[in-house]
Write a structure and sequence with these properties.
This protein is an alpha/beta fold. The protein is built from 12 helices and 14 strands. It has an 8-stranded mixed beta sheet with strand order 4-1-9-10-11-12-13-14, with helices on both faces. About 45% of the residues are buried.
């Protein structure tokens, strides 16, 4: 079972108390890759991006290796480095971000990708990309991504897309709408959030959102709605999975990322959409009770072991 995640991993600065900041490495698709591998270790997980050759880029690579996330398909350059962002979290656990990523090598992911890497992606079971993946790429790189996705489609690789709309990353709303619509049309599996549609397409009603997604051709749709229910569409039928709310939310930074990773790992491992959703929601609920995008590995593994015994 092989899955690749295309995107950007940055240095993350989060609040550590007493005015101190904690450094880690994170990014939406990278976070999903980590949580998938931690939860379903039998899966072969690869991260696809661009990195520099400087010390902080190497530290990011070492961090991925420590998580057993494959890095063989990452292209590198001595002219660029990795991006940086800081998380600001309010008392309710909601977060906002400040970014420094204009010199990020991930913006050149496709240019840095060699033919061997492209060939390796064609042997995957699934490949995931997101609206953030699209947003950080300059137009020529984005066109190269579409061409790559065409090749993956021809190789019968299932394509997974999460809109993950971040207005600040786009030049304008029209560009975002056009790119996201195209991403939806490529997707076999869609993992969006309700808020993506209200912000980007002014769609707020569930039937309208589902119709919009289905029109793109996805055969599996998992519509997340924060702490509320998850709406599913697959096998030509719709259903809803109720989510147990978390009483104490600390940091929602990677709630959706963790959900995506665990959901895809569960599906690759043979679980139904409903079973995968329940596992993904439980793991995301654990993650948001801790600070930072990627929680302590030992605490997470203890939680997963308890979840499987329940």
């Amino acid at each position: 079972m092989k899955i690749g995640f295309i995107g950007e991993c940055m240095a993350e600065l989060s609040q550590a108390g007493d005015g101190l900041l904690r450094q880690a490495f994170a990014g939406d698709t990278y976070n999903s890759a980590v949580y998938l591998k931690r939860t379903f270790s039998q899966c072969d997980v690869q991260f696809i991006s661009g990195l520099g050759t400087d010390s902080i880029s190497q530290a990011m690579l070492d961090s991925a290796t420590a998580e057993q996330v494959g890095t063989e398909l990452i292209g590198r350059t001595d002219k660029l480095t990795i991006g940086l962002y800081q998380i600001h979290t309010d008392p309710q656990g909601e977060r906002s971000f400040t970014y420094w990523r204009s010199n990020s090598a991930a913006r050149q992911t496709l240019s840095l990708m060699n033919e061997d890497a492209k060939h390796a992606l064609c042997s995957m079971d699934m490949v995931m990309f997101s609206g953030i993946t699209l947003a950080i790429l300059p137009p020529p790189e984005r066109e190269a991504l579409w061409a790559l996705l065409d090749n993956l489609k021809q190789a019968n690789v299932k394509l997974v897309f999460d809109i993950n709309y971040r207005p600040a990353l786009w030049t304008n709303r029209t560009e975002a709408q056009q790119s996201v619509k195209r991403g939806i049309e490529y997707a076999d599996i869609l993992l969006p959030g309700v808020e993506d549609f209200s912000q980007l397409f002014e769609l707020t009603k569930l039937p309208d959102i589902m119709a919009f997604c289905q029109a793109g051709g996805a055969t599996e749709i998992v519509l997340k709605n924060g702490a509320q229910e998850v709406h599913l569409y697959g096998d030509d039928s719709a259903r809803t999975v109720t989510i147990e709310p978390v009483k104490k939310v600390v940091d929602t930074t990677s709630a959706g990322d963790a959900f995506n990773g665990v959901y895809l790992g569960a599906r690759l491992s043979g679980f139904t959409m409903e079973q995968a959703t329940q596992q993904a929601a439980a793991c995301a609920g654990f993650v948001i009770q801790h600070r930072g995008a990627i929680v302590d590995a030992s605490q997470y593994q203890t939680f997963v072991a308890q979840l499987r015994q329940a």
